[in-house]
Hints:
The chain is mostly helical. It has a single domain (about 30-355), classed as ABC transporter involved in vitamin B12 uptake, BtuC (Orthogonal Bundle). It is built from 15 helices and no strands. Helix 5 packs parallel to helix 12, helix 9 (about 220-235) runs antiparallel to helix 14 and helix 13 (about 285-300) crosses helix 15 (about 335-355).
Amino acid sequence: xxxxxxxxxxxxxxxxxxxxxxKWLLTMGILAAATVLAVLVASxxxxxxxxxxxxxxxxxxxLRLPVEAVAGDRERLVVEQVxxxxxxxxxxxxxxxxxxxxxxxxxxxxxxxxxxxxxxxSGAAAGAVCxxxxxxxxxxxxxxxxxxxAGAVAAVILILLIWRGSRQASITTLLLLGIGINALxxxxxxxxxxxxxNEQELRSIVFWLQGGLEARTWEHVQLIGPPIVLGCxxxxxxxxxxxxxxxxxxxxxxxxxxxxxxxxMILALASLMTGSAVAVSGIIGFVGLVVPHVVRLIAGxxxxxxxxxxxxxxACFLIVADVISRMILQPVTLQVGVVCACIGAPLFISxxxxxxxxxxx
Length: 361
């Protein structure tokens, strides 16, 4: 008798495909609407309040849609040049972290895995801290994100080289190597923090490590937009492959999936998106862990829906978290990474306690 997971993850009859299409459209429609609403509210809310109607007209105008101009110069400047770039960066970062987390959880067959487990976040943190500690930022404002991205790429390449050199194809070995490299990089970061030359340098390092979206511009959107959008599209193509890989390597191979090559491709795409996101936002935890977990409980384990739904869910979650970080303690602004931890940690604990065994299929 076939397992229930075999039946759920296989493409079924015409009726089954129709049911999946309806569920896909309904879920994606609701999440897309929630994300658009979050963008609208986040663009309107702040120390300088802008009416929702005015904000909507500015957003429609930005999309080149015909609309009656109702905004003044001050409101236009606040929405278009200050808030909207920050909101879009937040959405892109949230989408990248959440879809990467969903893909990694499927790849490792473990709902407690997030992108940082393979060294991406720690590598980016080490690169950024090096840029701040050694003063590379004096050579240009882009040295910090470039150093962070380079650190993320270097960490992933190092882990993959060690994995291949170990001649152990087990995905568990890769996870353990990632945990080990994370510990090593964290130690190096702590050494640089302890050796900071002055208080300003220390504050800059701590500020970046907490994760934030302050002072993000359209240049940041242009920097991370292409790799994250392209990565999301490409990783969604592997939804069916991830479904089959959940059933075991042998069954996936028997279904025509090149398991090893698929693993490398998914790891590369997840690392590219995570590295791009962390390079401009700093370390933001729990998005790649909690959002896929919640979406899986609502939409089910089918990665053809789980991956794109996680991207939209992550974008919406981080945009809302950023609004909370700006508004909850005015005039003090919290780091969005701190808010994500405050929201994500209790939510994740409650989800774990509600289910004694988290089901991947």
